[in-house]
Each structure stands twice: as structure tokens, then as C-alpha cells.
Write a structure and sequence with these properties.
The complex is a heterodimer. By secondary structure, chain A is of the alpha/beta class. In chain A, about 35% of the residues lie in helices and about 25% in strands. Classes of the chains: A alpha/beta, B mainly alpha.
């Protein structure tokens, strides 16, 4: 489904450094790593929002790194993305934000769009919030609107960049409950990045750690605690002493 | 102790750097113009966004443009009334006010006002969208920000500055006529006769061509700086500043060349 081969991304310093990755269809994959280790850049590279400096990015059998913006538009229809800052359009109300992917895709009746928006907002616990503007919502509510927008068109690949950043533990649990419920229905391929390792582990089946632009661990979530890599070991335990 | 400026330490380097900086921005603005033109032939842009921007940029600018234009007309009379009276040439007041308002003062002042109100707001809005990943959000939803955001804004600014200049010219002339009556007692009929007998369509089109060019300069400059914001809220502030300065410079420089070519 998603394959990265020797992907390099460089700005003033290397961000991704010969990164390899292979995700099968339907996998729920989590990515952890220190700040500024390239997590968000990796997600954006997979979605085609960032072009790699070199290497190959394959999505659903298509190599996308050499595609121009017009070709990329077609590929991106396969993705739903929740951004770190939610990226809600502040000139649209909640209903318009959530409906946007359906409206732009075309071919869906306005009444059906309205129904699907209401149903999706109900699913994320925001029934009746259609006319509210994003700046009237709390951080947790904005995240839930972002999740509703990312998943309303039932894309085959969903990318969550820090779905619980800045949220309290209870809201974090609610958000992951919501993500699990959505996943149980959609069976999409999921890539999720989070700094909240424990919460992320309750959601994903496979987890990886990125460090200095490379994947240094990629395996089952249940096997993460047994990893002997000193960097992984220190990071997941939050220890002060170690290579990090 | 404050560090000596780069201009003192390395004058050639500083000048060279500034020239490179201007050339980079100019090149990017021209590239943006080409991309906008490519989206117009055939027309591929978001019509509801165009309407929304026409309303936001135009309608809401009407009061401030009318107020400015009215007093600009008044200022023309206040400045010239003494001399007109001294040389007993008050009948030329209509011609004088019309000539300067239509050809120069109207488009340039309304352009600068438009740049300060609409251009800066546009840069801030686009810059905030960049910082909060809304532009990436559009791209992630397979929407071309150029067609959805930029082209409607550029069109709206060009159209609205043109229309606001027409309106501003009329209000400025009305202001001049009114102040002419109040300050030197010039009859409306005399003012009007001076206006229409000496001015032609070319005087009007001269100013309106300028309005179109100024609109394009403000639109492209504000969009360019908005889309290239770096560094969060501070970066947005810096870009707004650069957009206003860049637009003002563009307006004044292009005014010189347009006046030269059109006269």
C-alpha cells in the first residue's frame, strides 16, 4: 500500500536520511520519536505535501515523488489527514469544514452531504455544532472536527499528525476511543504520529520510532518494550540518562 | 553595545544582498503572475470565493474610500483656491481638480488606501493560513490553493480597486465642487463647465488604467508575501510590513512609468 525506499529529505540539515518503510493495506501504524526528528515531514512526504530530495515514495502501486501537483491531486484523494494544528479553515463554520471534502469531490447531493455531516458530527460528539466557527471551539472540539473532516469521505488511507497534542488525559482517551470506533468501521490504512506514547500504543498494532531521520525500530506494539536499542529504550521510558 | 550595521561593515555586501533580495521577490511575483494567468486561460477558479472576496474587499472598503476621496477633493480646493482667486482664474478650478484627481491623485491615494486596508489584510490572512497549515490542508484535500484562494483574490482586488477608483473619483470631484462653493463661492455650474469643457475621456482612462495596474501590483505583492510567511506570528507581522512597503513602492514606481507612457 505504502512503500518508501531510501527517502532523503534535506533542508538546512538532513531531516529524513535514507528512510525505508513498508505498510500493508489496513495496518494501523504509529510513529514516535523525539521533537524535530522528522515525524511530520515523513507523513507529509507520504501524502505528497513535501517532495523528497531523493528516493522513492510508492502509494497504492504509484510512484509519487516525481509527480507534478496536478497528478498529486488525484493521489491525495486517497488520503484523509488530520494536521497537528487541525488546519480547520477559519473562514468556514464547522459544518462547512466537515462537508468540504465531499463538496469538493463532487457528485454527492447537498441533502446527503448534510446528512453525512450531521452523522459524522454525532459520531465525534459534536451534534448541533454545524454553525459554530472554529474559533468558538475548545482544543479538543477542534481536534474532533479535524477528525470528522479527515474521515468523512472514507478515504482508504488516514493520517493523524499528533491527534491529541495539548489535550488533557481524559480528552486524549476520548479521542483515541473515537479513532478506534472510526477504524472499526472503515478498516483504512492508518499512519499516526504522537508524542503521547502510552495513548498511541492503545490504538496502533504496529509502532515505529524515528531518530535522526531513520527508522530505528519498526515492529509489533506488543514487542516494543522488549526492544534492546538504547535510544528506543530510553525514549519509551522517558529516562534522563542515555544516548538521547 | 549595539552592533554596527552591516551597511557600515560590509557596504558592498549589504547593497548586493538587498539587490538580490529585491530580485528574488520580483522574480517570485512575476512567477505568481504567470501562474495566475495560466489559471485564467481557460478560467479555472472558485466562483463563490470570488464573490466572497469581491464583497469583503470591495463593499467594506466603500466608506473609507468615500471619506478619503471627499476630503482629497476638498484639499485640492483649499490648496489652490488662494491662487485661483489671486489670478482671477476660479473658473479653472473644475479643470484643475478634475485633471489632478482623475489622472493622479485619485488612483494613487485610493490605491495606497486599498493597499493598507485590503492588501495588508490579505497578506495577514494568507500568512496565518500558511502558519496554521490551512494551505497544506487545502492541498491535502486535493484543492489547488492557486485556483481556490489566490486567483479569486487577485481578480477581486483588480476589479474592486478599479470600481473603487471610479467611485472615489466621483466623490472627490463632488467634494471639490462643494468646497469650491464653501471656500470661494464658486457656483456648481461654473465648476462643472470647467470640468467637462477641458477634460476628455483620455483623462479618465489614464487614471483607470493606473487603477488596474495598481490593483494587480497590490494583489500579487500581498499574495506573494502572504504565501511565503516563515516563522509564526512574528513572520506574519514581518510579511504584512513587507507587503505594504512593497505595494507602495510598486505603486509609486509604476505610476512614474505609466504617466510617462500614457502622457
Amino acid at each position: 500500500m505504502i512503500r518508501l525506499k531510501g527517502v532523503h529529505k534535506r533542508w538546512d540539515r538532513p531531516v529524513l536520511d535514507g528512510l525505508d518503510l513498508h505498510l500493508e493495506r489496513g495496518v494501523v501504524w504509529g510513529l514516535i520519536g523525539p521533537a524535530a526528528s522528522g515525524k511530520s515531514v515523513l507523513l507529509k512526504t507520504v501524502c505528497g505535501l513535501e517532495k523528497p530530495t531523493s528516493g522513492e515514495v510508492w502509494v497504492d502501486g504509484q510512484e509519487i515523488s516525481g509527480m507534478d501537483e496536478r497528478e498529486m491531486m488525484k493521489v491525495r484523494r486517497k488520503f484523509g489527514m488530520l494536521f497537528q494544528n487541525n488546519a480547520l479553515f477559519d473562514f468556514m463554520d464547522v459544518g462547512q469544514n466537515v462537508a468540504f471534502p465531499l463538496v469538493r469531490a463532487g457528485g454527492v447531493d447537498p441533502e446527503e452531504i448534510e446528512e453525512r455531516v450531521a452523522s459524522r458530527l454525532k459520531a465525534v460528539g459534536l451534534s448541533g455544532s454545524e454553525r459554530k466557527m472554529p474559533n468558538e471551539l475548545s482544543g479538543g472540539m477542534r481536534k474532533r472536527v479535524g477528525i470528522a473532516r479527515a474521515t468523512i469521505a472514507s478515504p482508504p488511507i488516514v493520517v493523524y499528525d499528533e491527534p491529541t497534542a495539548g489535550l488533557d488525559p481524559v480528552t486524549t482517551s476520548k479521542i483515541y476511543d473515537l479513532l478506534r470506533a472510526i477504524q472499526d468501521q472503515s478498516h483504512a490504512t492508518v499512519m499516526a504520529v504522537s508524542s503521547d506514547i502510552n495513548a498511541l500504543r492503545t490504538f496502533v498494532g504496529r509502532i515505529a520510532m524515528i531518530y535522526q531521520g531513520r527508522i530505528i525500530y519498526d515492529g509489533l506494539e506488543s514487542e516494543l518494550d522488549g526492544c534492546q536499542d538504547p535510544v528506543v529504550h530510553q525514549f519509551i521510558r522517558g529516562e534522563l540518562e542515555g544516548p538521547l | 553595545m549595539a552592533r554596527p550595521s552591516r551597511l557600515l561593515l560590509d557596504p558592498l555586501g549589504a547593497v548586493g544582498g538587498a539587490v538580490m533580495d529585491i530580485a528574488t521577490h520580483l522574480g517570485a511575483v512575476v512567477t505568481l503572475l504567470v501562474r495566475v494567468l495560466r489559471s485564467l486561460v481557460p478560467p479555472r477558479f472558485d466562483l463563490p470565493e470570488l464573490w466572497r472576496n469581491l464583497y469583503k474587499m470591495g463593499n467594506q472598503s466603500v466608506p473609507i474610500v468615500m471619506l478619503t476621496a471627499f476630503f482629497v477633493g476638498g484639499i485640492m480646493v483649499v490648496q489652490s483656491a488662494v491662487f485661483m482667486k489671486r489670478f482671477q482664474a476660479t473658473s479653472l478650478l473644475g479643470w484643475g481638480a478634475g485633471y489632478s484627481v482623475l489622472r493622479e491623485v485619485g488612483p494613487i491615494l485610493i490605491g495606497l488606501m486599498f493597499s493598507g486596508r485590503v492588501g495588508s489584510n490579505n497578506t495577514a490572512e494568507l500568512g496565518t493560513m500558511v502558519v496554521t497549515e490551512q494551505i497544506d490542508g487545502l492541498r491535502a484535500l486535493s484543492i489547488d490553493p492557486m485556483r481556490y484562494l489566490i486567483v479569486p483574490r487577485v481578480l477581486a482586488m483588480v476589479i474592486m480597486l478599479f470600481l473603487l477608483t471610479v467611485l472615489g473619483d466621483l466623490v472627490a470631484l463632488f467634494g471639490a465642487m462643494l468646497f469650491g462653493k464653501l471656500i470661494i463661492g464658486l457656483e456648481f455650474g461654473v465648476f462643472y463647465a470647467g470640468l467637462v469643457s477641458s477634460l476628455g475621456v483620455s483623462d479618465l482612462t489614464h487614471g483607470l488604467v493606473k487603477a488596474l495596474v495598481f490593483g494587480l501590483i497590490i494583489a500579487l505583492t500581498s499574495c506573494h508575501f502572504g504565501l511565503n510567511v516563515k516563522g509564526g506570528a512574528v513572520g506574519v507581522g514581518r510579511s504584512v510590513n513587507s507587503a505594504v512597503v512593497g505595494s507602495a513602492l510598486g505603486i509609486v514606481l509604476s505610476d512614474y512609468f505609466l504617466t510617462y507612457v500614457l502622457t
